[in-house]
Design brief:
There is one protein chain. By secondary structure, the protein is an alpha+beta fold. It is 52% helix and 17% strand. The protein contains 25 helices and 17 strands. Helix 3 packs across helix 13.
């Protein structure tokens, strides 16, 4: 049987919030629940109390809950909170009516005893004396006596609810087969994985440590290992030498842990040791470790006979909850609810009653500036309810309608942050999966000058839309522009145009429309051509003793490519892009590169895609007819074929993308 104290806790949260009704105010009610009227003023007070609870909870984590109630997203959050108030009021009303109908009576002495237990627990949990509690209540404009009265009411209600639950649920007597089935479905709750209790000594190695620093750390950990082998106490050496602040003072004790709680190198070593054994130095991302295993517990997979009583208790608790919830759903389905606010009424209709289609038609009748937001939300709920095996045609139709609603809603929102919210909703629908539609965002570095930035931005948008028409796109809408982002929705009935538009290649082509003044290219390391970026960073270090010539610029406006091919490794990874240039382009490239040996890094969309070694042999080769150069991908094992093909397309289009050229003296 579930503890009645669970219901006491619920009741304590509700004291003063849902339980004590103040009567009617002037004017019409906000709600009528099963004949019980709730005034506008009282409903607002209940809502504000609920918001205050969330405020206090979020404040514990340094967050401001009120921000969630702002803007378009806040509209739904407020409706959800209002609906929660309604649902809690309705639950209390229906259950109270059922208790009265069944004439459940609890002896006063039992209520007094349980109230005293609950009150003592409240004092203990909050580390308060009765006098201190009285003082706190006084500051809130309340008395200790009134609080105890409200607590007694809550306790009485919760005891009655438990009695009602007993009557509704009835006896639960599962068979061994039902218990076995329950155990297998909840194995993770009863099985115990292998565990190790270990100590460690850590000598840290900085993230960008030099070879000398790594060698020094390794020698230090090896010297500590020798001391242990000569009889020194592991725990004492951990206190003296370990650089792990969380465990050093405890002799390096890490307590019990299972697989998945430590970094792989550490846990592999720890689980391979027997109690009392000490590992060789183990290198992880944190540095070098010595590990000593103190105890080990093997994995356990108990049979039903070993834990039958525990499984039986859990089964009964889950089954009681299921049966009671089913009983309450039936009560609620027959309940009479009148909600004055039309928007809240429709929201509650689909959010808590599940009447999606009816809610959609009701929203369509409302004259509300955010009408389309509400309808889009109803349709999104219907979409989510379809599941993974839904008819793709129906899914696409719903998604397309939702996208159109958000597009129309955006047109009514002049505020940029509001439009950003709509963008996030459109993006979540993955519109690029819809037939005939595409949605993409292009980021850029805005101009320092606001006036100049607006001019560049407007020019860029015009160029983008011009390029889209060249793609064969029939309809495009710039959804947002500014804040270093341009978001575009497009539609076309030409499949090849769409395929080109949403591919990596298409995005690169559009990205190249952005002029250098608008983009302000910034090279970022993503695993592709990382050595070039390291060289570039080294050049910027003062007093490094190393000299580099670093330039960033497009090399040529256009490449006349006679032939271009992508070669892959046996594993299917991109390996080399081989480019055969026209004689004229080869000579121009050789001249542009100058006489200095250097590495040419191909940069597209802020990513170093590949490198070309440009030494004297390469310059001589480029000057010859039919010259060839290779873009190496060996230093980028994570480069995908799609990225490599995108680079091929970009090279064909020209100009040669912005490049970082690093020349060693």
């Amino acid at each position: 049987m579930a503890s009645w104290m669970t219901w006491v806790v619920v009741g304590l949260v509700a004291v003063g919030l849902f339980f004590v009704w103040q009567g009617l105010e002037s004017g019409g009610p906000a709600l009528i629940l099963e004949g019980q009227q709730i005034s506008q003023r009282e409903f607002t007070k209940l809502y504000e109390n609920l918001v205050a609870q969330y405020q206090r909870f979020y404040a514990q984590y340094g967050q401001d809950f009120s921000k969630l109630l702002q803007g378009p997203g806040g509209i739904e959050h407020k409706l959800q909170l209002h609906s929660r108030v309604i649902d809690e009021l309705l639950r209390r009303r229906l259950i109270t009516q059922e208790i009265e109908r069944r004439r459940l009576v609890i002896p006063s002495a039992d209520i007094d005893d349980q109230t005293e237990i609950a009150f003592e627990r409240i004092l203990k949990q909050n580390n308060l004396t009765e006098e201190q509690a009285a003082q706190i209540l006084k500051q809130q404009g309340r008395t200790l006596e009134s609080f105890k009265r409200e607590l007694r009411q809550a306790v009485e209600l919760n005891i009655k609810i438990e009695r009602l639950r007993d009557a509704v649920v009835g006896p639960i007597e599962p068979t061994d087969q039902e218990l076995s089935s329950y155990l297998e479905k909840h194995r993770d709750k009863y099985d115990t994985p292998e565990q190790v209790r270990a100590r460690h000594i850590l000598i840290r190695v900085p993230e960008n440590a030099s070879e000398v620093e790594i060698a020094q750390a390794k020698k230090q950990i090896e010297d500590i290992k020798k001391e242990i082998e000569n009889g020194a106490d592991f725990a004492e050496l951990a206190k003296e030498h370990s650089q792990d602040p969380g465990s050093a003072q405890n002799g390096g004790d890490l307590g019990w842990f299972t697989r998945g709680q430590m970094v792989p190198e550490f846990e592999d070593a720890a689980f391979a040791l027997e109690p009392g054994q000490i590992s060789d130095p183990v290198r992880t991302q944190f540095g070098f470790h010595l590990i000593k295993v103190e105890e080990k517990k093997p994995a356990q997979r108990p049979e039903l006979a070993q834990i039958r009583d525990r499984v039986l208790r859990d089964y009964i608790e889950v089954e009681r909850e299921r049966r009671f919830n089913e009983f309450y759903r039936d009560l609620k389905a027959r309940a009479k609810i009148v909600i004055a606010d039309p928007i809240l009424r429709v929201f509650y209709l689909y959010e808590y009653a599940g009447h999606l289609e009816e809610a959609r038609h009701e929203y369509a009748k409302l004259k509300d500036p955010n009408q389309k937001l509400h309808i889009a939300r109803v349709l999104r709920k219907r979409l989510d309810a379809l599941g993974e095996n839904a008819d793709p045609t129906l899914v696409h139709a719903l998604k397309e309608e939702i996208v159109r609603l958000w597009l129309a809603q955006m047109a009514a929102w002049p505020n940029r942050s509001d439009r950003s919210y709509a963008l996030s909703q459109i993006t979540a629908l993955k519109p690029n999966e819809l037939p005939g539609q595409a949605f993409f965002q292009i980021t850029f570095t805005p101009s320092p000058s606001r006036a100049q930035g607006e001019v560049v931005l407007n020019d860029t948008i015009r160029m983008l839309q011009k390029r889209l028409k060249e793609f064969g796109v029939q309809e495009s809408i710039v959804l947002a522009a500014g804040d270093a982002q341009i978001a575009i929705w497009a539609r076309t009935e030409r499949p090849k145009a769409l395929e080109r538009l949403v591919s990596v290649q298409g995005k690169l082509e559009l990205k190249r429309v952005l002029r250098e003044g608008a983009v302000g290219e910034m090279v970022q390391a993503t695993g592709l051509g990382e050595q070039v970026l390291k060289d570039r960073a080294e050049a910027a270090k003062p007093g490094s003793g190393r000299s580099y010539l670093v330039t960033e610029a497009p090399v040529l406006d256009r490449l006349d490519i006679k032939e271009i091919s992508l070669q892959t490794s046996p594993a299917g990874r991109p390996n080399i892009i081989r480019v055969r240039l026209s004689e004229r382009t080869g000579q121009q490239l050789a001249k542009a590169l100058g006489q200095t040996d250097q590495v040419l890094a191909i940069v597209i969309d802020n990513i170093v895609y590949g490198t070309v070694m440009m030494g004297a042999p390469m310059r001589e080769l480029l000057a010859q007819p039919g010259s060839v150069f290779d873009i190496q991908f060996e230093d980028a094992p994570e480069a995908s074929l799609e990225e490599a093909h995108a680079l091929v397309v970009a090279l064909r289009l020209g100009p040669l993308p912005a490049a970082v050229r690093v020349a060693r003296p």
